[in-house]
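Action item from last week, closing it out:
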Amino acid sequence: MTQPDNVLPPRPRHLPIAPKAEPGLRRLPLAGESRPVDQYWRPLYAVWELTLQCDLACRHCGSRAGRARPDELSTEEALGLVQQMYEMGVKEVTLIGGEAYLRPDWLDIARAIAAKGIELTMTTGGRNLTVEKARAMKEAGFRSVSVSVDGLESMHDALRGVRGSWKAAVQSIKNLKAVGIPVSANTQITRPGLTQIEETFELLAESGIHAWQVSQTVPMGRAADEPELLLEPYQVLETMAVLYRIKKKADRAKIRIWPGNDIGYFGPYETMLRGSMPRGHMSSCGAGRMTLGIEANGAIKGCPSLPTKDYTGGNLRDDSLKDIWERSDKLRFTRDRTVEDLWGYCRDCYYADECRAGCSWTSHVFLGRIGNNPYCHHRVLEFLREGKRERMVPRTPPEGQPFDYGIFDIVVEDWPADELAQARRLADTAEGFLLHTERAAAELRARFEARAKDMPEEAVHE
């Protein structure tokens, strides 16, 4: 019997869950001087991976977190980076991992950030975020913390690889709120978890979150090992309909919805979902223009999600943050990108100059280069009008290192006859799911509930 395509099989074992990361790239070339455009853009928002060590074993982890990097920054080097970010004008720093609280000096670093007047936030899986940790975070100056919740209990536990991780995440929200830290949540939308997103939001809303960020899972790291986790491009129809329905509930509850840059683009719900943004809609990739990614070993990227080997612009042990920001080609790419750099469908799209293929992370980890992005609401709707859809087919597997990725091919095909009418109704009404998604939902939940009982209670990284 063929397994439904949104039922998750057992975790593959052909690669280690948490590999020993290779040392960071060093002594990378920089341009001889910075240009006016490089001095104009400033890193207003930085995401800092404090350590790659983690107490979860998530199946969709792009960094393959688990073990600390062999060359992570010392406390002195980390505090020096805080000073450099302050001098560069960084306004907000989000601490991530792995799991940031597993680094012994994490609160010292946090205090230094807050002392500079930089807004201090964190994203956490919440596996061991005790009330004592929460109290220490409050004293250190954390302004908000985002807890990761990816579905209902059995789904979340199966995705996170640890039994009890959902209950721990929910408890961490309570612990943070108990000490007076505002709490938000973040959710990765996977193919098996898509039908639970509305119920997940309702539970999070009841817990008292003030904001909710959603992004889709893309084939980086461990997610690249399991194509079953990934949405197909045509499922943007379902994703955007779900977010449209949730947005109305969120407005009533005064919860801010924040769709990531990897979801959507210029469909009928764009203004509703992103009307509060400066342009009233999603614009092009901001990597290296307003955002900054820092890996635990001092590697600098324009965005924390971008693949390490392709987008590391320099290392803090070799050059200053300012020199890397202004003089590295790996951080300059969005400053210089034009429509001429686009390809495929995106090259001739009506929104090409405004969008420039959207999220660079999504494009690169699916297709091996930026400039073409099939996960676009406008694009999906245009294909649907012709009775066509796009599907992703794996071509090259990942290598097994943090932030690695697989390569996929785009296949254009006719909508199956039994799906086309439903797809068009969904596009018109924003109600329901596609037929194959609905058929698999009940079996999916039963399988996850059964699998969750056999999972370990602590992370296993072999």
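Closing note: Residues 385 and 424 are 8 Å apart (CA to CA).
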